[in-house]
Structures are given as C-alpha cells and as structure tokens.
Request: fold
Amino acid sequence: MKAKGKTVSFDPKAFLSKVSGGRTTAKYRKNQAVYQQGDTANSVFYLQAGKAKVTVVSAQGKEAVVAVLSPGSFFGEGCVAGQLLRLATVAAMTECTITRITKAEMIEVIHKEPAFAEMFISHLLERNSRVEEDLVDQLFNSSEKRLARTLLILANFGKESEPEPVLAKISQETLAEIVGTTRSRVSFFMNKRPHRGSPFFAESRSARKARNRTLSTVA
Reply:
C-alpha cells in the first residue's frame, strides 16, 4: 500500500479491527450462534475477543465439540477453498467480538498483502497441527490424559503470554464433549487426588498452577 509516494506497511490486525465495505464487526452474547451447520459458507470470521466453540451434529443427532477458539483465531475459512455449506456450528462460549470478512475481500487481501497471507497461512498450519494432535490424543491417550491436555489448552498454557484462567464457566458436559467421554468420568477425574503416574501429577509446576486456575472456573 502507498500513500503520498511513501510505502505504508500493512498491519493485518489493524486491517481486521477496522470496519469496511467487506468487513463488519459484531458483539455476540454467551451461547449465541455465529453460524449453524448447513448454513451457506460465504465469509470468513476472525475472533477478536472471547472464546467460542465449534460443534458438529451427526446424522443420528449426536453432538460433539471439536474445537475451542481463542482470540486471534480465524474460522469459517473453508469457503475460501470452495466449501459451499458450513460443516459445523460455531457459538460463543463467552461474550465475543468477531469480525466477518466476505469471501471476495478475503481472497483479494490474501493476493494483495503478503503480511496478511503469511498471518493466514500460519493460522492454517497451526490449525492443521492441532487437528493432528487431537487425532493422536483420541487414538492413543486415556480420557484422563485427554482431559489434562484440554484443561491446559483452555488455560492458554504454552502460549507466549502468561497462562490465564478461562473466563467462562465451562460445564462438565461441555468438557466431556471436548474430551470424548462421559460427564461422570470428567467429574471423577476433576475430584480425584493427583498421584504419581497421573497425568496431572506429571505436569510442571507452572502447568499445575494454570490448570488449578482453570479448574476453579469449571461448573
């Protein structure tokens, strides 16, 4: 981008925070749906603030939480690759601020702005890695280990910033859906005293602090 003969650096986050012809920003209350499974896919979304969950319902009516989104996450990007209908439902877990970018503007800015393209590709690579980790987790780890990992992810542990407690009160039913187990098993593990060999006992000191802050928010 150029202005008055001088090159102006492109700031992807500033771009996403501004409302324009192809971009709108809206507030979502807790449990409000951003879009539903089966809706027309014609835009990409960027989570500015809050947390949201991605759920899928099978043909038999079984619902599963397949991802929890944190600030800085894109979602709904399948439309850029030709997806016509939404494959999942996204709903706010807390009060959220979300930017919607039309498919046309998303494709245009990816082509025109290398900084934005780099940011978006980094998101896709991180999302792909998370999906692979989730698959390995489901295939080879016990439900107790999966719960421990989920709690650390929800606490943002391992990110550049300091781990923070989850802002929303997350029900044990929701945790069970994320982990892929029953509410009774989640309740058992949450109330279980850690012992040697337990996934919770093996966490580092800072990780346990992050987990304990998260546990205090779980309903």
Q: What stands out?
A: DSSP finds seven helices and ten strands in the chain. The mean pLDDT is 82.
